[in-house]
Structures are given as structure tokens and as C-alpha cells.
Design a protein that fits this description.
Layout: E1 2-5, E2 17-18, E3 22-27, E4 39-44, E5 48-49, E6 55-61, E7 79-84, E8 89-94, E9 103-108, E10 116-126, E11 131-132, E12 148-149, E13 152-154, E14 157-160, E15 170-173, E16 182-192, E17 195-200, E18 203-204, E19 211-217, E20 228-231, E21 234-235, E22 237-241, E23 245-249, E24 261-262, E25 267-273, E26 296-301, E27 305-308, E28 313-318, E29 320-321, E30 329-335, E31 338-342, E32 345-349, E33 356-364, E34 377-378, E35 381-387, E36 393-398, E37 412-418, E38 426-430, E39 433-435, E40 447-454, E41 458-466, E42 476-479, E43 487-493, E44 501-502, E45 504-506, E46 509-510, E47 514-515, H1 520-530, E48 547-552, H2 577-584, E49 614-618, H3 626-631, E50 640-649, E51 652-659, E52 669-670, E53 679-684, E54 691-697, E55 704-707, H4 712-722, E56 729-736, E57 739-746, E58 757-760, E59 764-765, E60 770-777, E61 780-783, E62 791-792, E63 794-795, E64 800-804, E65 807-808, E66 810-811, E67 818-819, E68 826-831, E69 834-835, E70 840-846, E71 856-860, E72 863-870, E73 874-879, E74 885-893, E75 897-898, E76 900-901, ...
Parallel strand pairs: 11-12, 17-66, 18-67, 68-76, 69-77, 79-88, 90-97, 98-114, 99-115, 104-108, 107-112
Antiparallel strand pairs: 1-3, 2-5, 3-7, 4-6, 6-9, 7-8, 8-9, 10-16, 13-14, 14-16, 15-16, 17-19, 19-23, 20-21, 20-64, 22-23, 24-63, 25-26, 25-28, 27-33, 28-32, 29-62, 30-33, 31-32, 33-61, 34-61, 35-57, 35-60, 36-51, 36-53, 37-41, 37-43, 38-39, 38-42, 40-41, 44-47, 45-46, 45-52, 48-49, 50-51, ...
Protein name: IPT/TIG domain-containing protein
Pfam families: TIG
Domain IPT/TIG: 195-280, 824-912, 915-1010, 1088-1167
Length: 1386
């Protein structure tokens, strides 16, 4: 071990650095022992950051050769470096790659000061790997993943993974052999521990004002919010804050009769040991117990939870709960033995053997966070349940008319196949089932015999049915290849039944035969077989030697089949696993299959469940023809949950069955019988279950139609798309047509939610069908246990409580404070009651501090009155500098607090202002000169005036100075020609507030105007301008000097050229009026730009009205002129200097929708940001989309769908493109009223889709004001004496509409009214040529061709006839319209 002193740093040690005194270098046992001692010759650098991370290089000799000390027994290999001061030591983490025998490199750690504590944290989750940095923790990766865990952070702070010796604390993967990707690791995080240890003094005067000193640690951490202090619930005015002390001025006590006071964080835990067991009936006795009883112990806990393992005891947990916000809070208690919660005390009685534990939690209903954002979060969960009464199907089968037995004849059929198909393979089937004839389940239990013959043209097969049940359906022959067979099947001999057995049938499916006199059990067995899946035995005829595993997951192979997807989704798959593995690992000689997972294919993600019928693992395939497995099965005509058959009379059977899916079956029949042989009667029809629709609403939304059998995806789409504010939900489904339950979980809308409301069940069908909604789990935050920041300790006296970063601190000492009348100073008089800064103020009273003058504090408002002397009864002080005006005098004595003012004594003091000088004292008569006015008591409400009326324009104000710009002279002007005037002489300077002189009334301070120093105008090329600016103005003027800038009004004008006697400027855009030119004298520019009249006062909400705007000074340039009424632009047709004619367009808004929404499962870019949008007719929606960063295989489009749940383009609505794109945009204008659903298509491999809806509503009447702009300049809106004029446009008189009763708007406003709006109901045809006549029908048209205009796009449609309800026109044949493009008709 070598000890080396570090050289002192030449500079001061700032707060970001630490200087250490000694470095200890320990050379541990090396693989090869060394006899020479190690030595250190230098260390660099000698200082570094408090937060660690500084790389230190230690030079020397004899350091360890081998640095790699991994593995058991290698702990003492390599070097260790420790940084040591006179009080602390810190490990320096080795950097092995930079270390050899003559050099060591290491990295410093974060310095832990006295305010820091180190907390050990266990982190569990999907951590993937058991590797840390370059350290190999195991000989081999336990799960095959070699990624490295580098570092961990908590809230931006490093969470240290290594212990003091540089070893990983703990890093373990789950699973018996650590083969999982989940696991846990441990780390330590440094955090500040904030507490209050002492409060002094513990009492003070009743008027407050006592300087309270609060001692503790970490009190100055104001990362998120300022530190706050309360005394007895009232705010203590903080004067200073450091890490270990807060100083504040105590308040007056609150008016309250409280006997219990809230303290700092935590609850009080009181325990009475060895106390007799309290029963449930008398548990309230604990509330009356106190500290005088034996074996009493009290402590304070940080959360509402404790685990006490002493034997017999009773306990009381008490304190205050601080609700973080308004809302509903529900309290819960969980105890090991008897417990009861009383607001807010928890009473506990323990058993006699194991002690007790208790937890108190609270559910907060309104919050901003959901379960994905915090472990406290609970998402709202509601269930929608339908139920109905189900009655079974009951049929009676009467065989009493069964025919007498007779001699049977066997059925014979022939199959002829063309010899040209000799090489073709084929299958023979019956009733839709195909396999070899001997295995056909549709023939069994009967059999067949086959005889084959061949002639020149055909192969002939004679099939004899070994059956006495009568005639059979014709056999079917199909090719197993793509070619067609030339085949003929004929009945050679019709079978005749012996009638010794009866075969029940349903829709062509036959049951096994039973005796005519069979009992009910035999009939039930036969019909059960009819309603079951039938498979040939060959399917499960497997080689015993080749079979390793065979699992049939049903009583009979495919017997009682599955509920979901049973008809079209049953499939057979055979995989050669060995071949697949060797395809990737061709070097493998031995393959051992340890585990096999069956996962849902992406094709079947819409299925809620997937069932395994049977599983075979073996060395040989079960078949070489997988398709044959499918078509060899016979499916039943329908399924039943239950079936019972009873005998109600001789040869009469009653069938009672409950079908699956509320199926309503037809009547059963028998095979090969004629009318009258058998009578089947339906006694009771099976009920159909719940069908049709019910409607749901939420938060008073419009009702949504919900199908009674809606699936999960459609229910989600219906609610999310149609109900505003629903957010993203998760839907789960259970049940069937008898009773369904949908569980709705709010994923993105946090907090407790109102119940979904069933608004109507009128469209539901079923027997006594009902729909109910229940809350399964309230959303919100569930604090369990309650954290310390929501808790306050209970006390009998007022407490000093401290909040740091809006978090209550812990009080580890005595934080009590009381208000004491005996310590309260008093004030009986004060004089004088007014004066300027520096005046002496005398306060008389009692309880002042004569021993230490500095302990007496006097303030006039917030201005210190410096104490010059003090006795027990009198304080003298000098008033500090303050602005003029009234202030309240406040007196306090440190250690006692604020003084109490005797009744009738005034503590008001009036500061007065003073004016002493102005600088400079003279200037030209044109004004414009900055001056400094000096005095006392100034503030921003004070105004400097010259000669009593001319305002000196203020630039800045302080207590002693006002800087302002003097105005031009306005006293006794002398005309000097060209509109210029002047007057010499001195004028008085005064300070004025609210119109009254408050300083300078004696006239002693003056400012002198001097004509000799004033610049004088000799000529100006123009004195008028247009509003758009751009004119060049040349001004000749004497005594001009150098001009650095020119202002025209308040706008800067560029200087083109200048000299001592002239300046040329470029005018900026200017509004109407006279604009002074400022540079020491006052030429001016006049701009005439006014609007005096708007011809139109009322218009349709869809625009179209012609407007004439009159005035003066209008630039005759359409390109620089913009006219609008609110959002409705007015298209300019013509413009002169005094009149503009324009046509008002429809006011439209563009709504922007993008895919920036955050989906709770997929993340950002998987939701529209505005999925539910309400727009007005004529508005446009602009969609844009882009993929998540670095994610491929994601693409989007926008296309209209028929409804909220449809997953395809509706064929006629809006559409961005047929092909989805990763990035794009699309804009569409909605001209029709209604609701328009759309979706994005399936955007990823998981088939996720983004849905939205646009509700288009009619425009409402509104009013807008005229905006007329030339560039950025607006005119002066000035009504002419003649008032507003209503004008005709192109000979069309303004026609009054009696339905419109709205009053005329104000000047320069237009009312857009629905009562003036025409309506188009149809257009015919929708496509054609310029030769076609377009017929428009509707209402509210003007029956005059001259006053009606029709546009197709922006091209005219020439009107041939018009009425109030119809218009006929043809497109102007000179208009150039694009073929195949869809144009809007207006």
C-alpha cells in the first residue's frame, strides 16, 4: 500500500469540485508473486466534479500485471484505488483497459454528502440479459442473449449496480435454469433526505411577525417549487432559505376553535403492549385510550401500514389525510386481525400469537394518470350485460303409423369413368363426405361391395349397398387433381327398405338406424350421433412404434366439437419439425425437442380462442394427403348443448334440446318413408336469444346503435368513433346469445367515469331480454398504503410545517409553536404621519428591545425605517427612500414578533415627492430632447409637465429620476411660414399624478426653449402619401446636423440620403391620419385611407353576396389588397380610388388531423389526434401521416367506410388512394351534411386500424366585421353622414325576406343568416358533357336569370330557365374543364 499526498490546488475550491488529500493504491495478490514494492510518482488531475466521472491517471511502478479479477477465487487479483481525505474515503472505479504495471486509470464516484442517503432498489421486469458491461457473470449466457446491461437510472439519477468492491450487486434471470428474458437486478440510488430537526423560538407574540428559525437538512432544494412554511395552518413569510435553515416571519393565529392540529408528514402509531384482547363489539374502546396506560409506545410512520409482531397488543394509527385535489376519495382497510377505520383513526386489536399487520388505502376518483403511467393507477372498467330467457326446442315424433315389415332390396349404383382418364386419381363421396367407400361415415354402419369391369371406352364400377334401409343418394366422384373427370353415376337398382329399423334425418344428415320399437335411450343415442361430428377410424389408426405422443382432447375424436369457428376453421396440419430445424442448423447431428409452443397465426388474430382437437408427435406422418382429413369428416347440421328423449306413448318420442347459438331448428324427419308413416309435431319452438340492437350513450352523447351480437373489434369501433371523449378502450367479450357480457376498460381517459347508459332496448328481440351496465372497477388512483406526502401527524398544539418542492418534510424534533399574549409588543402613538425620505419617525409603546437596538424593526410599507435609538417604550428611525403615496407602518421586535396597535392609533404614513432639478435645462422649440428630472419619491404613475400642460413623454422612472422627451413648444407661437412656428422662453417643470401637481408647484425648476438652436424646415417635396407606403420624401431643413434615425409617427423610415441641411427618406406603410416626422423638428405626412360604407348588411351563411365598399384612398391594385368578413374572403371584381366591388365567398375552416395520437398498446403514430371531428358544411379536413421513427412496414391511407365498424372502402366516398403509404397527406372539403366514417386500412402486420368520424353540421347564423388591408395597413372605418346604403347589383334589387327578422348589424358588419340560404336537394345528371342540360332542384332560388349564378368548379353554367325551386343550365362550351374530374356545383 502506498500513501501519496496530493498537491494543493492553486485556486479556490468552488461548489462543483472537491479536493481530496490522500490516494491509497492497494496492489492485490497477483498470479505471479512479486517481491519489489509498488510506488506512486504522480496523480493527474488533482480535482474533479462532485458528481463523479473524472478519470484519474496514477503514474508509478510495480502495479499488478493482471487486472482481470473475474470469477471465484480471483477477488484479490489486480489493483484497488481509494481517494481519502481527513474525514471521508471514496472508491475510484478501475478502468482496466488503461492500467498496466506503470500506470493505473480509474473513474471517481459521485461524492455523497451529509444530505444524501443511499437506498437499495430491486427492479423486476423484462431485462433480457444476465451480462453486465464487459463482466461475464456466468460461464455461458443462461438464455442465449449476450446483450449487456450497462447502467440504470431513477428519475435522472444514476442507480449504482456495483457494490463497494466493484462487483455486480445482483442480476438474475427467471426460470429454473435462467432461460427467461424476465428477471431482476439490484441497484442503489442516492437521494436527499429532507427533515426539520428544530424550531426556535417555540412561541411568540399574538400579532405574528416573530422571526422563526427552522433548522434541518436539505431545506433549499427548490427544483420544482419554492419552499413553503405554515404555522398553525397560516403562511409564514419566508425571509431566507439555506440548506440547513429557513427564516420566516410568523403570521397571526387563525380564528379557530381547533383542538387538534396537523403537523408534518406521517401518521402517529400508538401501541399498548400486553393489553387484553379487544373484541369486535368493544373495539371502539381503543379510541379512548391514552399515554397514561401501561406499556405505551408511540412512534411516527411514513405510510399507512405497519407490521408489528409482538404478541398481544392493541394499536391506534391516527393522523390527517390531505386530499391532493377536489373529488371523491374512498377509504379501505385491510387487517390481519380485527381493525376498524374511523375518520381518521385506525383501531387494531391483535391476537395472542402472531402480532398483527394493517394497511389503509384510498381510492381517488379524479386524476390525470392511468394504469400504464403509474402503479397506483386503476383504469375504469364497466360491464354491459344482456340476458334473456331461453326456452328449449321440443318436438314429438309419432311412429305409430310405421309401415309393416317387408322384404328389402339392396341399392345398386354404377360408376363409369372414361378410359382417357386412366391416370387420374379420384375420390368417391356421399352426402358431401369423401374417402374410400369402406370408410365413408355417411354409409356406416352399412357397408358396400365394389365390382370393377373395363371395356374399350370406360372403367365400370358396380357398387352394391349392403343395406336393408332402402334407396340411397347417388354417389359423387371428384378428381383429386386440377383436371376434370368424364364420369357417369347411375342408379341400377333402387333399394327397398325392410322397415325393420328407422333412420332419423335432419336436412339430409342421417342418424344410425334404431329398431322401430327402440326405447327412448336408443333413440337419444341415435340422434346424438346425428348431431355429432363423424370421422372415419382411419384418422386415428396410427403406428404404435412411430407414435411418441398422442393427445385426444375430447371424449371422442372431434365428437363434441367447439363453439367458436367450428364450421370453417377446423384444420389439419402436419409439420416435419426435424426437417425445419436442420434447414437452419445443418450441422446438428442430434436434435432434442424440449418444448413446443402453439401460437396463433396472424391470419386468425380475429379469433378470441383457438382450440387443439388432437395432437400427435411421432416419427411418421399420419397421412400423405392432409386435405383428405378435412373432407372425410361429416359435420352435424347444428349443435346442441343438451338433448333428452323420453317416451310419451307407444312408438312416440319427445325430443327436448337446447341448441348452441340459440339456433332454431326445423323439424326432424325419417329416411325412406312416405307421408303418413311418421308424424313430427313441434310442441315448443326454441327461443331465438337476444337479437337486434340496443342503444348506448355516455356523458349525454348521441345514442349509438349496438348490435346484440357485436364482436370485440366492432364494439370498440362503435364506442370510440361515435362517442366524443371516450378515448381508447379495451373490449373483452364473454357469453353467447343467451347472455353476453362486454367488459369495457378505459385505457387513455383516467379516473372514475360515469356509467354508460342504455337509452333504448326497443329494437331488441328476444324473450324478456334485458341490458344492464355495471361498474366492475372504479377508475382512479389507489394509494395502498397511503404515501407520506398525503399524511400529516396529529398534535394538540399548533405546528410548524414545511413543504419543499411541494412535498411535506418529516419533523424529527419538536415542531410546536404557540402564540403568547405576554410576549406581544404594543404601539400607542406614531409621528409624523407624512414626509419625504430622511424624515425621523418616532414610535411609542411597550415591549421594545432597549438592550439590542437592531432587534427593533420598523418598516413603512416594505421600506426600511432605519432605527437610530430604542428604549422599552420608544423607537426612533429614519425613513428610507420610497415612492410618494400612503404606506402602513409596521413594528416588530425580533424574538417577540409584531407589535399590537392600540385602538384608535393610526399607522398610516404619507410619502411626499420632491423635485430638485432638470438636465439639460434648455433645448430647441421643436422638442424631442431627452431630459433627466431629479428628485425623490417618483413612480411610474408620475408625469412630467412643462408649463403646466405639455407632457414630457416618459422613457424610464426610478425613485429619484424620470427620463422623458420634451414636447414642442406650445406657448405664444410666432408664425415663421411654411406651417412652422416657435416661441422662446423658460417654462416651469412640475410632477403630476392623477391630474394634481405633487411636486414643483413653486416654479423653481424650469426648462428654457431656445429658437436659435432649433432646426427649421425650408421645403418638403410632398405632404401626402398612400397607405401602402414606398413614396420618397425629400425634406430641406436648416440646423439639421447628423440624423441617425427617422420616425414617421411611431414607424421607422429608412434614410436614403442626408446632409447637414436635408434628408431623404422612404415612407413605410401608414394608416389614415397625420403622421409627424421626428428628427428634432416636426414636418408631417398626411395619408387619406378611409372606408365609409358597406352596401350589404345581410347575406346567406354560404356567402355569394356582392358587396360594394366605398371610401377614399384605395390603391387600385388587387394584388396588395385583401378584403374579408371574418373567415369569409371577399373576392375583388373591381377597384377604384373610392370604390371596391367584391363577392363574399363561403367562410370555411381547415381542420388538421394527423396520426400523432398515442395508442396505449402500440404507442405514438397509431391513433388519429382528432378521431371525432365536428365541422360545418363547406369546411375542409386536412389529413397527414407519417410512421413512427425507425419503424418500417407501417403504412396508412384515408378512405370513407359505410359505418363505424366497416373494414373496407364504401366505393363512393372520399379516399386518399387505393394504396397505403408510410407518409402522405390528403385534403377533402365536406359539402354535404351528415356523418362520415373513415379508417386508415390495416396499417401493420397486427392488422391495427385507425378509425375516425367527421360530423358535418349546417352553418348557423353569425355576424362578422369587415377587414380591409393593404399589406398590413388597415384604413380608418368612418361612417359617412348619409349612413349605410343598400344597393342593387347588376340591376338585381335587394329583395326583402319576410322570414328574416334579425336586426341590421352595426356599421361595417354583415349578418350571415340561415333564413337567406337557398338549398340544393339534387343535381342531374352527375356526369356528362357541355351539351347536357344540368337540372338543379331545391328551394329558395331567385326566379330571375339575371340575379342567379351557377358555377361548375369556377366556370359558369349558362342558365336557360329558373324558378324558386328549379334551375336549368348548360356548361359554357368555352370553359376548359378536365375530363374525368369531379367538380363542385355552386
Amino acid at each position: 500500500m502506498n500513501k501519496v499526498g496530493l498537491p494543493e490546488d492553486g485556486g479556490g475550491s468552488g461548489p462543483a469540485f472537491v479536493r481530496l488529500v490522500v490516494v491509497f493504491v492497494i496492489v492485490l495478490g497477483a498470479v505471479t508473486p512479486r517481491t519489489d514494492a509498488a510506488s506512486v510518482s504522480g496523480v493527474s488531475p488533482t480535482y474533479g466534479s462532485l458528481n463523479g466521472g473524472t478519470r484519474i491517471t496514477i503514474a508509478g511502478d510495480g502495479f499488478a500485471r493482471n487486472q482481470f479479477n473475474y470469477g471465484e477465487g480471483q477477488e484479490n487479483v489486480g489493483n484497488n484505488v481509494t481517494l481519502v481525505s481527513d474525514t471521508r474515503s471514496y472508491l475510484c472505479d478501475m478502468h482496466k483497459d488503461g492500467t498496466h504495471e506503470k500506470q493505473i486509470t480509474c473513474y471517481t464516484r459521485c461524492v455523497v454528502d451529509k444530505l444524501m442517503t443511499r437506498t437499495s432498489v430491486t427492479v423486476s421486469g423484462k431485462i433480457f440479459t444476465a451480462y453486465y458491461s464487459s463482466d461475464i457473470l456466468t460461464a455461458n449466457s443462461t438464455n442465449g442473449i449476450t446483450a449487456k446491461l450497462l447502467r440504470a437510472y431513477m428519475g435522472g439519477r444514476n442507480c449504482e449496480l456495483l457494490d463497494e468492491l466493484g462487483r455486480i450487486k445482483e442480476l438474475v434471470l427467471d426460470g429454473d435454469s435462467g432461460d427467461a428474458q424476465t428477471g431482476h437486478f439490484k441497484c442503489s440510488v442516492d437521494s436527499k433526505y429532507i427533515e426539520v430537526t428544530e424550531v426556535t423560538p417555540s412561541s411568540g407574540g399574538t400579532e405574528g411577525g416573530t422571526f422563526l428559525h427552522i433548522h434541518g437538512t436539505g431545506l433549499d432544494d427548490t427544483t420544482d417549487a419554492a419552499t413553503q412554511v405554515l404555522v398553525g395552518g397560516a403562511v409564514c413569510d419566508i425571509q431566507s432559505v439555506t440548506a440547513d435553515e429557513i427564516v420566516c416571519l410568523t403570521p397571526k393565529p387563525l380564528d379557530s376553535d381547533k383542538t387538534s392540529f396537523e403537523g408534518n408528514r406521517g401518521w402517529r402509531l400508538e401501541i399498548w403492549n400486553d393489553h387484553p384482547l379487544v373484541t369486535v363489539d368493544d373495539i371502539d374502546e381503543i379510541a379512548e385510550m391514552n399515554e397514561t396506560l401501561d406499556d405505551y409506545d408511540v412512534s411516527y410512520v411514513e405510510e399507512t401500514k405497519y407490521d408489528y409482531r409482538n404478541n398481544r397488543h392493541v394499536a391506534r394509527l391516527s393522523g390527517y389525510f390531505v386530499a391532493p385535489d377536489n373529488g371523491k376519495f374512498t377509504f379501505y382497510i385491510k387487517g390481519e386481525h380485527m381493525a376498524k377505520i374511523c375518520f381518521i383513526e385506525v383501531l387494531v386489536s391483535s391476537g395472542t400469537h402472531h402480532g398483527s399487520s394493517i394497511e389503509v388505502g384510498v381510492q381517488r376518483s379524479n386524476c390525470l394518470y392511468n394504469a400504464d403511467q403509474t402503479t397506483w393507477g386503476r383504469n375504469e372498467k364497466q360491464t354491459i350485460t344482456t340476458s334473456t330467457i331461453i326456452q328449449p326446442e321440443i318436438q314429438e315424433i309419432d311412429l305409430s303409423g310405421w309401415p309393416e315389415t317387408q322384404t328389402s332390396t339392396q341399392e345398386v349404383q354404377t360408376i363409369s369413368i372414361d378410359t382417357a382418364d386412366a391416370t387420374s386419381r379420384f375420390r368417391v363421396g356421399l352426402s358431401g363426405v369423401y374417402t374410400k367407400l369402406s370408410s365413408l361415415v355417411t354409409i356406416q354402419p352399412d357397408t358396400v361391395s365394389v365390382k370393377k369391369e373395363q371395356n374399350a371406352d370406360t372403367y365400370n364400377f358396380t357398387v352394391t349397398f349392403k343395406s336393408d334401409r332402402g334407396s340411397w343418394p347417388l354417389l359423387d366422384v371428384v378428381s383429386t387433381e386440377d383436371t376434370e373427370l368424364s364420369v357417369i353415376v347411375e342408379q341400377e337398382t333402387m333399394g327397398v327398405s325392410s322397415y325393420t329399423t328407422v333412420t332419423f334425418t335432419y336436412n339430409g344428415v342421417r342418424a344410425p338406424p334404431v329398431r322401430v320399437d327402440a326405447d327412448a335411450a336408443e333413440v337419444e343415442s341415435s340422434i346424438n350421433s346425428l348431431l355429432s361430428v363423424k370421422c372415419p377410424d382411419s384418422i386415428i389408426e396410427l403406428s404404435e412404434e412411430a407414435t411418441y405422443l398422442m393427445r385426444d382432447y375430447e371424449d371422442e375424436f372431434t365428437g363434441q366439437y367447439f363453439e367458436d369457428g367450428w364450421r370453417v376453421r377446423w384444420m389439419y396440419s402436419c409439420l416435419n419439425v426435424l426437417e425445419l430445424i436442420r434447414g437452419r442448423h445443418d450441422e446438428a447431428s442430434i436434435v432434442v425437442l424440449k418444448k413446443m409452443n402453439v401460437m396463433r397465426n396472424a391470419v386468425y388474430t380475429d379469433l378470441q380462442y383457438i382450440y387443439i382437437d388432437a395432437l400427435y408427435v411421432g416419427s411418421e406422418p399420419t397421412t400423405g394427403d392432409p386435405e383428405a382429413f378435412i373432407i372425410a369428416r361429416q359435420l352435424p347440421p347444428f349443435r346442441v348443448k343438451s338433448l333428452s328423449v323420453t317416451s310419451v306413448a307407444n312408438m312416440t318420442y319427445r325430443l327436448e334440446m337446447q341448441p348452441w347459438d340459440c339456433y332454431q331448428p326445423d323439424k326432424f324427419s325419417t329416411w325412406n318413408t312416405k307421408e303418413g308413416d311418421v308424424a313430427v309435431t313441434r310442441v315448443q319452438e326454441a327461443s331465438e336469444g337476444a337479437n337486434g340492437y340496443f342503444t348506448l350513450s355516455w356523458k349525454n352523447s348521441d345514442p349509438v346503435d349496438v348490435p346484440a351480437d357485436v364482436n370485440v373489434e366492432d364494439m370498440q369501433a362503435l364506442l370510440q368513433t361515435n362517442i366524443p371523449g371516450m378515448g381508447v378502450i379495451k373490449v373483452e367479450h364473454d357469453g353467447d346469445c343467451i347472455g353476453r357480457k362486454w367488459t369495457i376498460t378505459w385505457l387513455t381517459v383516467p379516473g372514475e367515469q360515469p356509467l354508460l347508459e342504455v337509452t333504448s332496448t326497443e329494437k331488441l328481440r328476444g324473450l324478456n331480454v334485458t341490458v344492464t351496465v355495471e361498474q366492475e372497477r372504479a377508475g382512479g388512483l389507489f394509494y395502498n398504503p397511503l404515501p407520506g406526502h398525503l399524511l400529516r401527524t396529529p398534535h394538540d398544539t399548533p405546528q410548524v410545517t414545511v413543504m419543499v418542492n411541494d412535498i411535506p418534510v418529516k419533523c424529527s424534533g419538536n415542531c410546536s409553536y404557540t402564540w403568547d399574549e405576554s410576549k406581544t409588543p404594543t404601539v400607542s402613538a406614531m409621528s409624523p404621519t407624512s414626509g419625504a425620505a430622511g424624515v425621523e419617525v418616532i414610535v411609542t409603546g411597550t415591549g421594545f428591545d432597549s438592550a439590542t437596538m437592531e432587534n427593533n424593526v420598523v418598516k413603512i410599507g416594505n421600506i426600511t425605517c432605519t432605527v437610530s435609538s430604542a428604549t422599552d417604550t420608544e423607537i426612533k428611525c429614519t425613513a428610507g427612500m420610497g415612492p410618494a403615496g400612503p404606506r402602513t407602518v409596521w413594528v416588530s421586535v425580533i424574538g417577540k414578533g409584531a407589535a399590537k396597535v392600540d385602538e384608535g392609533v393610526t399607522m398610516d404614513f404619507e410619502y411626499t415627492a420632491a423635485l430638485t432639478s432638470i438636465s439639460p435645462t434648455s433645448g430647441g422649440i421643436g422638442g424631442g430632447i431627452p431630459v433627466t428630472v431629479t428628485g425623490a419619491g417618483f413612480d411610474s404613475s408620475h408625469v412630467v409637465k412643462l408649463d403646466g400642460s405639455d407632457i414630457c413623454e416618459t422613457r424610464s422612472v426610478s425613485l429619484t429620476n424620470i427620463i422623458c422627451v420634451v414636447p414642442a413648444v406650445s406657448v405664444d407661437p410666432v408664425d415663421v411660414g411654411a406651417g412652422w412656428w416657435h416661441a422662446d422662453g423658460a417654462v416651469p417643470v412640475t410632477i403630476v399624478k392623477d391630474g394634481a401637481v405633487i411636486a414643483g408647484s413653486d416654479g423653481s425648476v424650469k426648462f428654457t426653449y431656445e429658437d436659435a438652436s432649433t432646426p427649421k424646415l425650408t421645403s418638403q417635396n410632398t405632404s401626402t402619401a398612400t397607405p401602402q407606403g414606398g413614396q420618397v420624401v425629400h425634406i430641406d431643413i436648416t440646423n439639421l446636423g447628423t440624423v441617425s434615425s427617422v420616425l414617421v409617427g411611431n414607424t421607422s423610415a429608412p434614410i436614403i440620403t442626408q446632409d447637414t441641411n436635408f434628408v431623404t427618406i422612404l415612407l413605410p406603410p401608414l394608416g389614415d391620419g397625420i403622421h409627424q416626422i421626428y428628427f428634432g423638428s416636426l414636418p408631417s405626412i398626411s395619408v387619406d385611407f378611409k372606408v365609409t360604407d358597406v352596401s350589404t348588411t345581410k347575406c346567406s351563411v354560404y356567402g355569394g353576396c356582392y358587396v360594394t365598399i366605398t371610401g377614399s384612398g384605395f390603391p387600385e391594385n388587387k394584388d396588395i389588397t385583401q378584403i374579408s368578413f371574418g373567415r369569409a374572403p371577399c373576392k375583388i371584381n373591381s377597384i377604384t380610388n373610392t370604390e371596391v366591388q367584391c363577392q363574399i365567398d363561403i367562410a370555411r375552416k381547415v381542420w388538421f388531423v394527423d396520426n400523432s395520437g398515442i395508442h396505449p398498446v402500440y404507442g405514438e403514430r397509431y391513433l388519429w389526434n382528432l378521431p371525432i371531428l365536428t365541422v360545418e358544411q363547406g369546411d375542409e379536413v386536412d389529413w397527414s401521416w407519417e410512421p413512427p421513427e425507425y419503424i418500417s412496414g407501417v403504412s396508412y391511407r384515408v378512405e370513407q367506410t359505410a359505418n363505424a365498424t366497416a373494414s373496407a372502402y364504401d366505393g363512393s366516398g372520399f379516399r386518399s388512394d387505393e394504396v397505403s403509404t408510410p407518409k402522405g397527406s390528403f385534403r377533402y372539403r365536406f359539402v354535404e351534411l351528415g356523418t362520415f366514417y373513415y379508417w386508415s386500412g390495416r396499417i401493420n402486420r397486427k392488422k391495427h386500424a385507425m378509425r375516425g368520424v367527421v360530423h358535418v353540421v349546417a352553418k348557423k347564423s353569425y355576424m362578422e366585421s369587415l377587414t380591409y388591408k393593404v399589406g398590413t395597413i388597415e384604413p380608418k372605418y368612418e361612417t359617412s353622414a348619409a349612413g349605410r346604403r343598400k344597393r342593387s347589383v347588376d340591376g338585381c334589387a335587394v329583395i326583402p325576406v319576410t322570414e328574416c327578422t334579425e336586426a341590421d348589424p352595426s356599421d361595417f358588419q354583415v349578418s350571415f343568416l340561415t333564413c337567406l340560404t337557398s338549398e340544393m336537394t339534387s343535381i342531374s345528371p352527375h356526369q356528362g358533357t357541355a351539351l347536357d342540360t344540368i337540372i338543379i332542384t331545391g328551394s329558395g332560388f331567385e326566379a330571375s336569370q339575371d340575379c342567379t349564378e351557377v358555377l361548375v368548379g369556377d366556370k359558369p353554367c349558362l342558365i336557360s330557365s329558373v324558378s324558386n325551386t328549379s334551375i336549368e343550365c348548360k356548361i359554357d362550351n368555352t370553359a376548359e374543364l378536365e375530363i374525368g374530374f369531379r367538380y363542385e356545383v355552386t
